[in-house]
């Protein structure tokens, strides 16, 4: 009951990648990079275990970016011909690679990462991959010229990869879909976004999750959130669709947000990963503050379905701040668990 987890990423050690930024360049030479990444995974697992996190991740230590780390081993994408486009509903501009031909896997993408993490923790292991809609939103498509067709192709690719990861002992596969929270895309979420999620997770035999938040704590996202008004109600349109889907868990943003918690009622029957840690600030929550968020969410989600979590990934934060937030998350959940007599 009230088992804790994180959205996915943790800060990388300063000897591995430049601190405090997304898509940070690697600082190790190619011949030492894989070993350095594995060492960073061991540190990420240790930090979570020592803090008391129940369902751990590899901290995304082997990926520069949550989307492009997946795309590195996909054929049909020209990574040398980057173009600048508006992504996430033109919230910001990004240099992205170009789809030139049919997309397919060259081979396993994240298998070695899952195998290594699985061998070094006895706790339940979650692994994150980008969802089909978010992948499509992070590419310039000059081949399919249809967001839906390209998304379904990536759903097929994700499913191929996910079946292999499940066979390696993975417990939870999470698809990250920040594109689901973009007003301009909500029609697409209903038309084909949910179907793409279900195709991506078909027949896995493990728990499946989707993470939908309001983004990393970076300037563009913070400014966008300030423009959304006194209540953030994007979830009101996506939650009923997800409640009817085969996805097991929904991860969302709650801490320091303007999301009406009553919207959690719309996820009846699903595990709800309640963001109780604000990743947009370096201020470390107290356990009581975390407990307060959990208590409010319990008005709408039964305790056996509620998993205290972070709002989003913590990769841009200082490592000591992230460790403090991990401890606060675990201690805050323990406070409420004790109150419930669990």
Describe the structure.
Strand 9, helix 9 (287-297) and strand 10 (306-310) form a beta-alpha-beta unit. This protein has ten helices and ten strands. The radius of gyration is 19 Å and the shape is globular. The protein has a seven-stranded parallel β-sheet with strand order 1-4-6-7-8-9-10. Strands 2-3-5 form a three-stranded mixed β-sheet, with helices on one face. The chain has a single domain, classed as TIM Barrel (Alpha-Beta Barrel), CATH 3.20.20. 37% of the residues lie in helices and 20% in strands. The termini are close together. Helix 5 (147-167) runs parallel beside helix 6 and helix 9 crosses helix 10. With 342 residues, the chain is α/β, with parallel strands linked by helices.
Write the layout of secondary structure elements.
Layout: H1 30-51, E1 55-56, H2 68-71, E2 74-87, E3 92-105, H3 111-119, E4 124-130, H4 132-136, E5 140-141, H5 147-167, E6 172-176, H6 186-200, E7 207-212, H7 219-226, H8 235-243, E8 249-253, E9 271-277, H9 287-297, E10 306-310, H10 319-339
Parallel strand pairs: 1-4, 3-5, 4-6, 6-7, 7-8, 8-9, 9-10
Antiparallel strand pairs: 2-3
Helix pairs in contact: 1-10, 5-6, 6-8, 9-10
